[in-house]
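quick one, two chains, predict together pls
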Amino acid sequence: MRRTSPVDLIALTFGFAFLYLPILILVVWSFNASKLVTVWGGFSTQWYRSLFQNAALMDAAWVTIRIGLVTATLATVLGTMAAVALVRFRRFRGRGLFGALVYAPIVMPEVITGLSLLLLFVAVGLDRGFWTVTLAHVTFTMCYVAVVVQARLATFDRSLEEAAADLGATPLRTFFSVTLPLIAPAVAAGWLLAFTLSLDDLVIASFTSGPGATTLPMRIYGQVRLGVTPEINAISTIMIAVVAVVVVTASVATKRREP
Amino acid sequence: MSAPSSDHGSGRLVVGLPFLWLGLFFLLPFLIVVRMAFSESAQARPPYRPVFDLADDWSTTLDKLSLLGSGNFSTIFADALYLEAFLASIRLAGTATAILVLIGFPMAHAMARAPERLRPVLVALIILPFWTSFLIRVYAWIGILKQEGLLNLLLLNLGLISEPLEILNTEIAVQIGLVYAYLPFMVLPVYAALERIDPTLIEAAADLGASRIKTFWLVTVPLALPGVWAGAFLVFIPALGEFVIPDLLGGSDTLMIGRALWVEFFNNRDWPLASAVAVLLLVLVLGPIMAYRALEARREDAAQRSLRP
C-alpha cells in the first residue's frame, strides 16, 4: 500500500472539517449559558430544560415522529416493490416512464413537489393534516428506498432465486424466503433513510400540512425566522445524537451480518 | 427470469402499485399545477378562479386561450424581478456545482486511494451529515456568518480585517450554504466511480511511461466523468429550486426562484402566480432531469451486463 500523499491528506482534512465544524459548533452552543454565540457563559443545560417545557415544540416533535413512522413503513413497501420492478422486470410497457418517475422525485425541487401535491389535495377535496403530509412524504421517500434497494438487488447472485424457482417455489414465496433475507440490510437502510427524510422535511410539509399537523421542522423554521434561539440548538443536538447513534448501530449490525 | 414471474399476478402488483402511486401523486399533480397556472387569482377559499372549466365547450375554450397572453405568465415575463430571480438561481446553482466539483473531486479521489480498511469509515463520515437535519445544518451557518458571528470574531482576532464583514444576507452566504449542504451529493457518486477503476489500468499507464499527471488526466478523469456528471445533476437540479438556503442565509435581497414561489404562495396567497412560477421552473429543470435519468439508466444497464458471464 502506498503512503497517503499530502494532497490527499489536505483534501480530507479540510473537507471533513468543513462538513463537521458547523455541526460541532451547534452542539457546543447548546450547552452555552449565554444567549450570544460569541460569548461563552459557562456550561449549562438550561436550554434542554426549557425545551422540554416548550409544549408547542414537544407536540410538533410527536406529530413528526408519527408521520415519520407511517411514512417510512409505507415508503419501504412501495420502494422495495419499485426496486424489484426496475431490476427484475426488464421489459414491461411503460418501463421508461416508470424509471423516470422513480428518479425524478429525488432531484425535483421541493417547492414544485410540495405545491403540486397541495393542489392535488385541494382538487380532490382532501382535508389537509396528518394524512396529507404522510401521503406527500411517502411519495418522495419511496424513491430513495427504491434506489437504495435497487443497488443491492442489482449486485447479488441470482442463482439462489433461480434455484428456488426450479424447486417449485412461487415467485412470491421465492421473494419472501430467498430474496428478502438477502436484501434485508438495504431494506432496513431504506426504511431509516425514509424516516429521517420525513423527519427533516420542511418545504413539502409546509405546503401539504393543515391545522393540528405542524411538524417539528415547521416549528423550528418559525423560531429561526424570529431569531436564533438556544432552544433550537438543544433540539438540534438531540436530533444529531439520535441520528448518530442509530446510524452507527445500524452499520455495526449490518457489518456483523455479512462477514 | 422476467418472463415467468411477470405473467404471475404478484408480478403485476409489484410493477403496478408503485407505478400507480407515482402516477397519482407525482405525475397527475403537475397537470393540476399547469391548470392552476392559467387560472385567475381571487379572494376566495381556495384563492383562485379557474379559467378552464370542464363545462366549457370548444369555442369558449378557444376564446379563453387567446386571452392567455394577459395572464400570470405575462405578469412574470413583464416583471424584471422574476427574470432576475431565475438568472440568480441558475448563476448560484451553477457556481455551486462548479465549486463542488473542485472540492468534491479531490476528496473523493483521496477517499478512493485511502487504505481499504479505512474506506467504509470515510464513506460513513460523508453520509452522516446527510442524515442530520438539512434545516439545522443550514441554520448553523447563521451563527457563523452573521455580523457578530464566529467567522467575523475569528478574522478580527487574527487581525485580517478591522471591521466585521457583512456576509449573512448576501449572495456569498447563499453560495457557502449551497456548497456546504450539497457536498455529500457530489462526493459520493464521484467516489463510487473512482473506486470502480481497475488499478491495473493506472499501472499499465505508468508502465507505458506516462507521468502521474498524464495518467490522472488521461485515465482517471475520463473514467470518473460519469460520477462527476451524476454528482453535478444531483446538486444542480435541486439547488435551482432551493428555498431553505436563500431564505435563511440570503435575506430579503437575494431572490432565488424557489423563494419567489414560496413568497407568492404563502405571503401573497397568489396560488395561480405561484403555479406559473412552478411551471417555468419545471420547464427549466426538465432537460437536466431527463439527462440525469438517461445517465442513471446507462449505469444500471452496465451493472446488469457486468453480472452476466
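The domain at 54-257 of chain A is CATH 1.10.3720.10 (MetI-like fold).
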